[in-house]
Design goal:
The chain is mainly α. The protein has a single domain, classed as Cobalamin adenosyltransferase-like (Hypothetical Protein Ta1238, Chain: A, Up-down Bundle), CATH 1.20.1200. A hairpin with a 5-residue loop joins strand 1 and strand 2.
C-alpha cells in the first residue's frame, strides 16, 4: 500500500464515512491538534519518566487515538463500529488527577511552566491540549459532536498540569511560583 493517495492534492480530505471536507475545516484542525498532542506525549515518553507516569502516558496516547477517530467521524456517519470517547474515559482521567494530586503539596499560586525536562514537555502538551479544547468547543458550536470530546479534553489538560507537577516532584525540582 502506498503512503500517498493524491486525493488531498486539491485541499480536501475524507472523514470517516466518506464525506469530503476542506483540510482547513474546524474538524480537521481539531483532530489534527489531538494528533499533535499525542506526538508531544510521545516525546515525553522518550525522556524516560517514572514507570507509573509512563504507564499513564501510554494509556493517554491510546485514548487520544480514540478521540481523534471520534472527531474524524461525524455522528451521522457512525455505524456503531467507531469507538468514541465515553464517560468512563473521563472518569479515568479524574481518578488519575485525584491520585496524583493527593501526592503533591496543595497549590497556592500559579506556577511557571518548566522544571524538569519531563515536566516542561508536559506543560507544552497541556497548552496544545487547551488549544485542542478551544477548537473542539468551536466545532461543537457548528456541528453536533456530542459533549464528551470537550469534557475529556478539558479534564485531560487538568491532568497534564498535575502530571507536570508530579514529574517535578519526582525529579526533586520545585515548581516556580
Amino acid at each position: 500500500m502506498k503512503i500517498y493517495t493524491k486525493t488531498g492534492d486539491k485541499g480536501e480530505t475524507s472523514l470517516n464515512g466518506g464525506m469530503r471536507v476542506p483540510k482547513s475545516s474546524l474538524r480537521i484542525d481539531a483532530y489534527g491538534t489531538i494528533d499533535e498532542l499525542n506526538s508531544h506525549l510521545g516525546i515525553v515518553r522518550t525522556l524516560q519518566p517514572p514507570a507509573d507516569l509512563d504507564a499513564i502516558l501510554e494509556q493517554l496516547q491510546r485514548s487520544l487515538f480514540v478521540l481523534g477517530t471520534d472527531l474524524a467521524t461525524p455522528l451521522e456517519a457512525s455505524t456503531g463500529r467507531v469507538k468514541r470517547i465515553e464517560q468512563k474515559d473521563v472518569d479515568r482521567l479524574e481518578g488519575w488527577i485525584d491520585t496524583m494530586d493527593a501526592q503533591l503539596e496543595p497549590l497556592q499560586l500559579f506556577v511557571l511552566p518548566g522544571g524538569s525536562p519531563v515536566a516542561a514537555h508536559l506543560h507544552i502538551a497541556r497548552t496544545v491540549c487547551r488549544r485542542a479544547e478551544r477548537l473542539i468547543d468551536a466545532l461543537g458550536r457548528q456541528e453536533t459532536i456530542g459533549t464528551l470530546p470537550l469534557i475529556y479534553t478539558n479534564r485531560l489538560a487538568d491532568l497534564l498540569f498535575v502530571l507536570a507537577r508530579y514529574a517535578n516532584k519526582n525529579s526533586n525540582v520545585n515548581d516556580t511560583p
